[in-house]
Specification:
By secondary structure, this protein is an alpha/beta fold. The protein contains ten helices and eight strands. Strands 1, 2, 3, 4, 5, 6, 7 and 8 form an eight-stranded mixed sheet that branches. Strand 2 (64-69), helix 4 and strand 3 form a beta-alpha-beta unit.
């Protein structure tokens, strides 16, 4: 099994494939000022197994949600969970790349994307997705962000290598303004979104994951890399985080 397939196998059973939380998703919804009774057309891009998708389907009673992810394996899990929660009729899965979306210009009221835009880069994502929003439509997106103006050298090296586009919140907001959005809210995800909702459940799956793959060198390498990332957050988490930004498309 190649490393990508191993990563998918490690993450498939997780409620989340990255930091986040239901309370923080609902806070972003409040900051956006969304009419929860409106028949919204919403796309959750890079939805994974659907933590935010499922919550939005419950909170937005009349919304139609397109759940977009490149991996059909994640969407299969999402559909099972949607049926269990009684919201399957509100959700349409779409297996495609986030840089090749199937929407028409001006089709969407809301684009939502938690912890996934890094796959194509923040600037490319917000620029490419804008045309799918109606004038005045909402963009809600979270991305890895520096929270201090300076940071330890080892942390700087790690994230510059892993995600060269990492930047301060002020730079993210400036990019939004340059690409035809009006930012209306910003919040940094608190530590429990990383530790309690993502890293600890991930660590709890390590043993089963390694057993499934015969403690292969490739599987052990993935666990080791994740453990290194966790240690980095535990040591330096005050210097970076996921920043969730809310913005409207300027007509």
């Amino acid at each position: 099994m190649d490393p990508l397939d191993l990563l998918i196998d490690l993450h498939r059973d997780g409620a989340r494939q990255g930091p986040g939380g239901d309370a923080e998703t609902e806070l972003a919804l409040q900051l956006a000022g969304v009419d929860r009774t409106a028949p919204l057309q919403l796309a959750d891009i890079g939805c994974g197994t659907g933590a935010s998708t499922l919550l939005l389907a419950r909170l937005l009673g009349n919304a139609r949600i397109t759940a977009v992810d490149l991996r059909p394996e994640f969407l299969d899990v999402l559909q099972v969970r949607a049926r269990q929660l009684g919201v399957a009729d509100a959700i349409s899965p779409c297996a495609c790349s986030m840089d090749s979306l199937p929407f028409a210009d001006g089709e969407l009221d809301v684009i939502w994307s938690e912890g996934a835009i890094y796959s194509i880069g923040f600037a490319k994502g917000i620029a490419g997705w804008r045309r799918f929003l109606k004038p005045g439509g909402l963009l809600v997106v979270s991305d890895i962000t520096w929270t201090t103006a300076s940071r330890p050298a080892d942390l700087q090296r790690h994230w510059q290598a892993a995600y060269p586009e990492i930047d301060m919140a002020s730079a993210r907001i400036a990019l939004l303004e340059r690409h035809g959005y009006a930012p209306t809210g910003y919040v940094v995800l608190p530590p429990h979104c990383w530790l309690d909702h993502y890293y600890r459940p991930l660590q709890a799956r390590f043993d089963d994951f390694l057993r499934r793959h015969g403690h292969s060198e490739a599987a052990r390498a993935i666990v080791s890399a994740v453990e290194d990332e966790i240690r980095l957050y535990e040591a330096h988490g005050s210097h970076f985080g996921y920043g969730m930004v809310v913005a409207r498309r300027v007509s």
